[in-house]
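Q: I'm writing up a methods section and want to include an example of the input and output format. Could you take the sequence below and give the corresponding predicted structure tokens, formatted cleanly so I can copy it straight into the document?
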Amino acid sequence: MSVIDHVVTVHEAKSQLSRLIAEVESGRTVGIARGKGEPTVMLTRAVKPRRTIGWMSGTKVPADFDSMGSNEITEMFEGIGN
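A: Here is the clean output for your methods example:
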């Protein structure tokens, strides 16, 4: 769990949301509390999902991709052609 760097009330969060977003974008974590109580919500920077196939951008997939090699695979499993 992240350490909260700064705590504000719900009212402050509503009126200063742009500033709080900038604070979170800089790497800090902001807690939001009801009244003067303990924070019940945290604002943290969203984690962008990693693109696992980004290195393949622009790659063309053949139209027969789903059936490529099916004859060879069938021959291997069924022993046809030996």
